[in-house]
Amino acid sequence: MAKPKRKYVCTECGSVSHRWQGQCPDCAEWNTLVEEAPETKFAAKHDLSSGGRAIIFESLDMPTKPLARTTTGLAEFDRALGGGVVPGSAILMGGEPGIGKSTLLLQAAAAIARAGKDAVYVSGEEATGQVRMRAGRLGLADAPIRLAAATSVRDILTTLADGTPPALLVVDSIQTMHSDMIEGAPGTVSQVRASAFELIRYAKENGVALVLVGHVTKDGNIAGPRVLEHMVDVVMSFEGERSHQYRILRALKNRFGAVDEIGVFAMEGDGLAEVSNPSMLFLSGREEPVAGSAVFPALEGTRPVLVEIQALIVRLQSGATPRRSVVGWESSRLAMLLAVLESRCGLNFSSAEVYLNVAGGYRLSDPAADLAVAAALVSALADKPLPLRSVWFGEVSLSGEIRPVAHSNLRVKESAKLGFDQACGPADDGQSVAKLRYSGISGLMALVDRVMATA
């Protein structure tokens, strides 16, 4: 009998190599090749074109049952999911250790169980006593959750097959699960893929909402094979800084809803509390204007969130290379914006250190933040504060023009609701609302003139 060949699979791109290498030859990532158990090879007589069960094709205009959802009792969780969990769906939730994944799911399971539905929580990392201690600290000890500590997928599915399928099944975490059908230790590529496949198949066949907790790598990606994210229906990321109070639940993939909705929570002593007005977390409460500070109405799905952008300019006396430090925004975007300000407006940033920070630990990816960043930079350079109750938004092009952005009116209305009286954005791209005046800015030169004219 021929000796089976070893096969190494890249956890990032899925490429296959027959020998281990430190760097993947396809995606150039380091230390991502993991040995996979050899596959069973069939003889040539095993022809897959016969011997199977004939499938039935359907047309697109056939009547379909309306999508049913189960609310979790947490409005912010339901918002990120698109309205609640769908029976028979598989949800993968990733996040850094200690960010609050287990706490959030325990609170959601308790809310569903208290509503009269069956909820099962399987922990592969903690003993049942540890989970009960957390539940007692959160005030959830009276919730009728079925709790177990297990790592064998066969044991879990055998136990669940004896009774009525639950409404919610939480597995914490998928990297600790083990299938005896596959060789290898828990957490390997083959084990994670096989365990997830068996759990997802059970959920689909029995109409169970399945939530899998996933570990993340140092880069923030979910550990394990990339195919795991393709197998599930929803991929969620629980983000936040441990030094800050807020947590953001973001949908990266959602087959049953939008992927741009977020849920905002605040970590408190008795668990995660929902935040109905997240703008108050990211805005400072000062009453005096400060140079280098601009407020930007970011848009997360259908929810505007106002955040404060802070800039600091430090002039250098020597010929040292100036630093560019960015927290919460793309450093490449800052470099482009500084180049446009120097080239189109004649401002000198080359001999100064530039520090940019998004207050509250918030991370911005909206291109509409360009104008707010530019306003903060010009204000810090001129040492002239911007109007206290003003917001800034707009995308800056390489020519220095302010380009229109999506949902300008929604940003303006949310700013007016929070007490701001002035909004500055692209020309002819917004409208004034009650108690708020909209000012259009055509280019960066107009922005510089406006800031320099500020008293």
UniProtKB/TrEMBL annotation:
Domain RecA family profile: 66-216
Segments of this protein annotated with the region Lon-protease-like: 353-455
GO biological process, one term: recombinational repair
Claim: Glycoprotein is one of the keywords in the record: no
Binding site for ATP: 95-102
Key word Nucleotide-binding present: yes
Positions of short motif RadA KNRFG motif: 253-257
GO CC, alphabetical: cytosol
Superkingdom, natural source: Bacteria
Family: Belongs to the RecA family. RadA subfamily.
Function noted in UniProt: Plays a role in repairing double-strand DNA breaks, probably involving stabilizing or processing branched DNA or blocked replication forks.
This protein's domain notes: The middle region has homology to RecA with ATPase motifs including the RadA KNRFG motif, while the C-terminus is homologous to Lon protease.
Name this protein carries in UniProt: DNA repair protein RadA
Gene this protein is translated from: radA
